[in-house]
């Protein structure tokens, strides 16, 4: 018997942005779906526009699992996680322990398939970077949604995230932002007018 999927089902119970006032709360499970969709798109953009040979399906799968350790650790807020190098290093250790605990729940015959999904140490670095970009885009989109709803709490995070995205060397990230992000600043009526 494996408890893996009973744990993964609890992703929907882990709330993101726990130190910030949210107009609409967001959980890790729905966040992971959005990151998977964006990662899938980044791989397609990268292949079609910039000559890479990435698997969009693999990008989406890696993204689905990118925050699963949080079912054991919770979502530690970014200002806490990166407060100083010592806290960051200790959190990485805690995260690694959680990842290996989840991997230990996988039946032995499937361990090799789940190892690169559940443990960052064995993740493919190319997809890890792509998913991190997608994750940053999704955090930025959350900021835009909260700001559109009148929540200025997310203004500093938005500024930090757009700087990070502007510094991202992946041209697929810039393409995604130019192509898809402007619609997040529109109302539903405005989006529908453009169709």
Written description of the protein model:
This protein is mainly α. It has a single domain (4-193), classed as Hypothetical protein af1432, CATH 1.10.3210. It contains eleven helices and no strands. It has helices at residues 4-8, 28-50, 56-64, 70-73, 78-81, 85-104, 111-118, 125-148, 155-167, 171-180, 188-193. α3 crosses α8. The protein is globular. The N and C termini lie far apart (50 Å). The model has no long low-confidence stretch (mean pLDDT 94).
What keywords describe this structure?
mainly alpha, 195 residues, Hypothetical protein af1432, globular
CATH-derived topology: Hypothetical protein af1432
Helix share of residues?
55-70%
Per CATH, the architecture is: Orthogonal Bundle
Q: How many distinct folded domains?
A: 1
Principal-axes geometry comes out as globular
Cα separation of the termini: 50 Å
Order of helices and strands: HHHHHHHHHHH
């Amino acid at each position: 018997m494996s408890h893996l999927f009973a744990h993964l089902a609890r992703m929907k119970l882990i709330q993101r942005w726990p130190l910030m006032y949210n107009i609409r709360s967001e959980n890790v499970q729905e966040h992971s779906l959005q990151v998977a969709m964006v990662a899938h798109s980044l791989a397609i953009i990268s292949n079609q526009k910039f000559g890479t040979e990435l698997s969009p399906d693999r990008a989406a799968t890696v993204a689905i699992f990118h925050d699963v350790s949080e079912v054991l650790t919770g979502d530690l807020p970014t200002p806490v996680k990166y407060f100083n190098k010592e806290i960051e290093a200790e959190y990485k250790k805690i995260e690694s322990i959680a990842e290996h605990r989840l991997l230990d729940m996988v039946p032995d015959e499937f361990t090799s398939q789940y190892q690169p999904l559940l443990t960052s140490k064995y993740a493919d670095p190319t997809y890890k970077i792509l998913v991190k970009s997608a994750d940053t885009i999704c955090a930025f989109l959350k900021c835009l949604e909260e700001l559109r709803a009148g929540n200025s709490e997310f203004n500093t995070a938005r500024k930090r995230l757009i700087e990070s995205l502007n510094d991202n060397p992946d041209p697929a990230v810039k393409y995604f932002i130019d192509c898809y992000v402007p619609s997040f600043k529109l109302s539903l009526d405005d989006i529908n007018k453009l169709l």
